[in-house]
UniProtKB/TrEMBL annotation:
It comes from Flavobacterium bernardetii. Its main location: other. This is Cytochrome-c peroxidase. It is found in: Cell envelope. The lineage of its organism: Bacteria, Pseudomonadati, Bacteroidota, Flavobacteriia, Flavobacteriales. One of its GO terms (molecular function) is peroxidase activity. PROSITE patterns: CYTC (PS51007), PROKAR_LIPOPROTEIN (PS51257).
């Protein structure tokens, strides 16, 4: 059984690799028609003129990439886009991945708990910006998914979220496959991408992961400055003095006395949120927020975080609440949290970088420093990701 699964996986990898080859289209591909796709999506999904997902411009200073064996293809990401926005992916045809990950708020949510088919999510929905460009390959706040591919179908199989759990009277994931297999545009799309109308969980996972990894944001003020700078540590020519001060504070580790009080240096955000990707260090542990959305008990297992890019829009508007509980509602409050770390009873997983000398860190930031860090964080926001049609709802 194990060998069979490995062979199936290898065949799928070969199939996906062939989808990346845009130079050798077959006569059939060129002349094929896709009436169901055309009828459902019109010009928003044009299989003969695919959007560019596979060969987007990536800055030279961006070096992290967790795509692994699932390289992005234009075909695969196109299918992934349809799956991402399709409410047929839920048991009652009301919820899609995009219900909790909205393009207008950097593919996160602007409510604390996202609504599913049978209630609400237990944690705030994480933004999906630049998921590809991170060392950490695990997903969810508590890292319970070993890869993005595995993560993509877990909400679908969750009773509360999309309802194909196969338990407690729910339909199973196989029922979803049967459901999708009867949809004409999926027959065409899966054959277009994989050469066969057959739908499997692995194919769904690979396509969704390709689309999600394609969602990238590198058109920020920070990127303009970094492109002409030798490294992050120097002042950026396009930054204001305040933004450069905030960047220096963000990047520079703090100096503490024996009681955990900052006596100099910066505030060391980059120790966990590493420039230039601003991804989370895989060795990070709990950040001191151990509450739950329900208000019952504590939750100390959250060690992952999304990229800090596009925390806010360029105008400073927050892209939804921050942290797994959504308890933080401004950049000032986020900085304030790290400014005074309390070692709460029961938190046995607190990151040691937040407890110098065994004490919760006291950064003693003044208003000028706080405003400078906020100004810098705002430089990490672009504009394209909010409006680019290749990441938009194809059903509209």
């Amino acid at each position: 059984m194990k060998l069979t699964k490995i062979l199936q996986f290898c065949v799928l990898i070969v199939t996906l690799s062939s989808c990346n080859d845009t130079n050798e289209e077959t006569y059939t591909e060129i002349t094929a028609t896709y009436p169901a796709v055309e009828a459902e999506f019109g010009s928003s999904v044009d299989l003969k003129n695919l959007a560019n997902y596979a060969n987007q411009t990536i800055p030279a200073y961006i070096t992290k990439d967790n795509s692994g064996l699932n390289a992005i293809s234009d075909k695969g990401a196109t299918l992934g886009r349809v799956l991402f926005y399709d409410t047929k992916m839920s048991a009652n045809n009301t919820i899609s991945c995009s219900s909790c990950h909205k393009q207008e708020v950097a593919f996160g949510d602007n409510v604390v708990a996202s609504t599913g088919v049978n209630g609400t999510t237990g944690r705030h929905s994480m933004r999906l910006i630049n998921t590809r460009f991170a060392t950490e390959s695990k997903f969810f706040w508590d890292e319970r998914a070993a890869s993005l591919e595995i993560q993509t179908t877990m909400p679908i199989k969750d009773h509360g979220e999309m309802g194909f759990s196969g338990t407690g009277g729910d339909l199973s994931f196989n029922d979803l496959i049967i459901k999708l297999s009867a949809v004409d545009y999926y027959k065409e799309l899966f054959k277009f991408v994989y050469g066969s109308e057959e739908i499997t969980e692995t194919k769904i996972q690979f396509a969704l992961a390709q689309f999600i990894r394609s969602i990238q944001s590198f058109d920020s003020k920070y990127d303009i400055g970094r492109a002409s700078a030798p490294n992050d540590g120097v002042n950026f020519a396009n930054f204001t003095a305040q933004e450069n001060q905030g960047k220096n504070l963000f990047l520079t580790p703090p100096a503490f006395n024996a009681s955990g009080v900052r006596t100099g240096g910066g505030i060391g955000c980059a120790g966990c949120h590493r420039a230039p990707e601003f991804d989370i260090d895989p060795n990070s542990r709990n950040n001191g927020i151990i509450g739950t959305i329900s208000g019952v008990g504590i939750d100390i297992t959250n060690t992952r975080a999304p990229s800090l890019r596009d925390l806010v829009k360029v105008d400073g508007t927050l892209n939804g609440q921050i942290m797994h509980t959504g308890v933080i509602t401004s950049l000032q409050a986020a900085i304030g949290h790290y400014g005074t770390i309390t070692i709460a009873p029961g938190n046995t997983n607190l990151d040691p970088r937040l407890t110098p000398g065994g004490f919760g860190q006291q950064l003693n930031l003044n208003a000028t420093e706080v405003n400078a860090v906020i100004a810098f964080l705002r430089t990490l926001s672009g504009t394209d990701v909010y409006t680019n049609t290749k990441w938009s709802n194809p059903f509209n």
